[in-house]
Every structure is written in structure tokens, then in C-alpha cells.
Amino acid sequence: MPSEEIMSLYKLGKLDSEIYSVRKKASSLDPGNKIVEEIRLAQTEWNIDQSNLDKTNARIYELESEIFKISEKIKKDKITLYESGNVTSREAQVLEKDLLVQEKRVEDLEHEYLNLLDEKPPLGVKANIKKEKLNRLRIKLDQHQKEVKIEQNKLKEKFDILIKSRSDYIKEVNPAVLIIYEKIRKKNGDTGISEINKDRACHECGHFVAEKILDSIRSGNIVQCESCSRILCEIVSAGVF
Ligand SMILES: [Zn+2]
Fold it and tell me: How far is the CA of 85 from the centre of ligand 1 (A)?
């Protein structure tokens, strides 16, 4: 049967292991980095498609205005040429030549304009799909962050309870042993005590416990594991739990 001293230390060790695992769990909570990265990519994709759509719209607007301007000029030139009656034949020649150039220009612009009108709807659909994807990811991130927050709060609550009861556990431990224990615990991060399992090994690090060490523990001495330095105790084999 382990001594009261070891039992108190063992209980503290169990509590510290629990505190350690809560801490570890809290620090390993995923803040949603993968979704953030997905959002970044989706944003880039959407920016490209939206910019293509914007450029197309801008060009369509530009073409409309240019076609209108040239068409107006053609109308005016035709009036000058055919209706004004005060154009010399030399001027008429120049105007006619110029009209041909302008009409060809309008034809080219209209061709480009119609092509762009055909291209615009699929570009809009493409940009919309990307935008919806982006919105879905933003909702997903928001949901994930809310869940993480809930989990964080739960762990914090659990942590606070454990820390509070730790001060009671400490009171039960021999102060001299506690100093040794705390030094080991701080070094290992989790607990400063380890059970000897049924294979006669340190439960925490697996190091085999020699017969003479076991004898020393059974005589009531505080003995540390030769490998991980944790204080060794025989609890399970003693049938305490
Ligand atoms: Zn060990």
C-alpha cells in the first residue's frame, strides 16, 4: 500500500496531467487557418473574374460612345455632302473618301461591340459563381470561429476549476517532496510523478524499473525514474484504484 505522502502526490500528479491536457487542447484549437487560406485563394479568383467583367463593361461603354460619335459625324458629313449644295468637287472627293474610312471604322467597332455583348453574360456567371464560393467560405469561417470560441470557453472553465482545486491538493503534499515534484513537473511540462506499470516500467517514459529501485520505493523512499526523472510510485499494482 503506498504511503499517504505518495498518494497525495499521485493525486496532484493526476490533476496536473489533466491541467496539461486541457492546456494542450486549448493551444491546438484550429483558428481556421485552412479556411482563411481558401478564402484568400477564392478572393484572388473572384478578383480576376470580376476585373475581366469590369473591363468588358468599360469597353462596351467606350464602344457605344465611340460608335455614336462617329455615326453622328457620318450623318453630318452626309448632309454636307449631299444636301448643302455648296461643296466643290474636290471637297466632295475628300469627304466621300473620309466617309468610307469612317463607315469602315464603325463596322469594325460594331463587330467588336457585338462580340463583347456575347462574351459578357458568361463572364458575369463566372464571376458570380466565384463570389458565391467566397461568401460560402466566409460563412464557414464565421461558423468555425464561433465553434472554436465555445470550445475555448469550455476549456477555460475546466482549466479554472482544475487550477482552483490544485491549491487544495498541494496542501496535502509534504512541502519538501513538493519542491522536488514541482521542479520535475516544470521540466517535463505535464506531471512530476509516474506510476510503475504491470511490466515494471515507468508509465510516462517506459523505462524499466530495476528490482533494487522497486525495493527502495516499497521501503518508503522518494525515488526518481532514471530516464525521465519523475517520482516513481506503485499505485495500480497496490490495487488502490
Ligand atoms: Zn520515466
Answer: 113
